[in-house]
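Subject: complex prediction, re-run

Hi both,

The earlier run crashed halfway through, so I resubmitted it with identical inputs.
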Amino acid sequence: MSDAATQIQQAHGDSLWIKAFRKFRHDRVGMWSLGVVMLYAIVALGVIAGWWATDWAAVTGPKWAPASAEYWFGTNIIGQDIFARALYSTRTAFEVGFVVALGSTMLGAGLGAVAGFFSGRWIDEVVIWLMGVLDSVPFILLVAAIAYSLQGSPWAMHVAMIATFWITTARLVRGEVIKLKSLEYVEAAQAIGVSQLLIIFRHILPNTSHILLVQATISFVAAIKSEVILSFLGLGVKDGMSWGLMISESTFEVLAGFFNNFIAASVFMFGLVMAFNMFSDALQDALDPRSVKES
Amino acid sequence: MPNAAQPLLRVRDLTVEFATDQGIVRAVDSVSFDLQAGETLGLVGESGCGKTVTGLSILGLIPSPPGRVVAGSIEFMGRDLTQLGEAELRRIRGSEISMIFQEPMTALNPVFRVGSQMMDVLRLHQGLSRRQAHSAAIEMLGKVGIPLPHKRVDDYPHQLSGGMRQRVMIAMALSCNPKLLVADEPTTALDVTTQAQVLEQILSLQQEFGMAMILVTHDLGVVAETCRQAVIMYCGSIIENAAVDTMFSQPRHPYTAGLLSSIPRVREKKVAELPVIPGMVPDLLHLPPGCRFADRCAKVHDRCRAEPPPLATTENIPGKVACYDPN
Amino acid sequence: MTRTDVSGTARGAQPLLEVRGLKKYFPLRGGWLGQVQKQVKAVDGVSFTIDSGRTLGLVGESGCGKSTLGRAVLYLQPPTAGEVSIDGELLSVSDKSRLQAKRRDMQIVFQDPFASLNPRRTVAQILREPLDVHRRGTPAERRERVEELLNVVGLRANALNRYPHEFSGGQRQRIGIARALALEPKFIVADEPVSALDVSVQSQVLNLIERLQAEQGIAFLFISHDLAVIQHVSDAVAVMYLGRIVEQAPAEALYSQPRHPYTRALLSAIPVPDPQRRSRRIVLQGDLPSPVDPPLGCAFHSRCPLAVERCRVETPQLESVQNEPGHTVACFMADR
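This time it finished cleanly. Structure:
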């Protein structure tokens, strides 16, 4: 079946990004979820700038105060403002998500591109072997091992996550690079005499940026979710506050019948993860040249 | 071509639009032509002229979220195909009107054997039993010139060459003896020598089955050798419609004339420089108000830019042309 | 193997490009240990020369190896065997820096206008890259050269900061040609440069190529499956079938007096846009044999209307045709 519609689109020569932007603008779900994510981002920025939630660690109130005008979610067992803590945790979430997304995407892109370009040769075999090995170790064990070996450094968690999340990105990039490297503009660069490393990083990798962007958003969300488990096990955030830590400290409280802490952390986290997931889906749809939106 | 008999296919004012991010594109604009039973019509033009969309809309195969038939009628044996529902259309596809496509690899399902794909068509439209369908498939493969058909019937598409796959597609398309075959660039993806083989096959089968054919192509050479009627499209509308015999010797529209002279062909003497149609095809989103060829035409008048010329016949000269000052 | 001079007239000067016994095989691995089991013989012993400023047209159908040959000549895919020399100097993979320097003299224009330009780079970046890699001139001089290149191929200066997707197929091909011209090469391999373009645009680009050759004296290896296009641009023509050249002649001789049965079939198969001239067509039977371990004897014998027993066991070599200088044919049955 001739892709008559795509042919017509192509004839009008718009770049992938402009087309994606236009498609995304019409995706209501996408736009709303982006709005929510932006809201969270502003909260996080405000925390960093010191506009709010600076008193998250202060013991100001009575133990287990119910939700009120002063304490929107009440207080926890020590008497700290739950809402302030939840706000502060937004900053932690963004920090973890951002660092891990950036790190794992860069690492995955680099290794994936090199493996794909030299596919079939030894360097590709090494990367694939590495991916296989890391994949077969259960995530928690790997993180625990890295956390232990880094002896309580606050970056142990980030490193552990990056060390596992890069694999999916690398696989996707490797596949795409294998496709791209046989395109004529790569041959043209070779005919000119451009070095192989430059070809990989200047010519091929930029053409995988749509994959990288989507993978980065997925890693962001995965990082936030993983942090919850890690903090729960005591392997996560050490100083500072996070939703994972809040949930972990709330287990005790829930047994005593006080749910506010648990609910606050869960709701906040659910909101961001859900919104980011939907944004990521919408982004993927927008970047897919073949998807057609019903108007 | 005045003909007293009722045409097999009568297309009137067919208009198809596509919704794109940047607005509505009119891929086909008020296209009208007739096709007699057993006749071959060449639908010719360059990429983007609307010929493929026209071919697809005959069978109702325009992808429907972006595309839509907004006006016109396609009368096939008296029935307007644009008014039929999907179920009715499915009954017609494959049995009364068949289509073959440009890329034989993507048109055949790679995970099914060739024979079973053919049998699907036969059993669906003619209600044959498995055994009957199997032998009918072998017979059809032989008819399209595939050697050792009883062996080839169990092959997978990737085991056959491009030319053979295309022949399998033709066999599938003709297996239920349709009255009309729409062939969308059937030989463009094939080598010249294979193209010659496949075209010959199509023509002899057409004669044997008394089938009409619409051949969508950009290759004027193929049209000259196989078609009786030629319809030239440019930017979505028909600019010339004439008998092949007269059109090639006396092209009326400047675009047709330009096309014929600028196509590289094997000549007896080399020419120093190839004649050229200057300029580019206009953007379908920003069509000029008048004749769409005006910017590239050597004979352009003011009138041409104001109002697009209608497709009309002029006295004493057969054929139709959309031009205020045809040759 | 007979070496044929492209120009047809005897020249004292050395040819610009000399190709001798070029082979390119691709190994197929299989079996338990992934050992090499068979070879795809894409190019199986090709020789020719091209003089400065002349064009050799290379014609053949898909699978004949012409594209592989083009890339092997440029050492983009180094040949399995054989020699290529430009200006008398042999190309070799062992001397990387010398090969890199030689790349200035030989460039390539591709078939697909959509895939041959990096969609993420502007026209200016695309055209500057060859100059940057080989460090030609000062940055200011490079900027000037890029503008000059655009002018030469008939594009306006406002194209510089635009991206490939903003241009039509024909314009993209011009950009590709401009890129090939950037380093002032002596030799260009044009791999089906107009096949993917609309017919009305083909003539524009062909005229451009012809003009460039006349103005700058560049030699071309023009690869195409389209005999009409080849006739228009070539001084001499070589016909390829399954990795070998089966006939080679000055352009006029090939079209008026083709000797090889494949050449004749090819010429007669072209649909002619003239309904009055329905000439007798030679329709070949059968399909192209596989280039994996091709059959013994003449590669064409399975489809040849003139084949005899000898053709099945012996491989014909290129031999000269009497009274026609520069015309060679590899066929036992061709009248010479």
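The first helix of chain B runs from residue 51 to 58.

- K.
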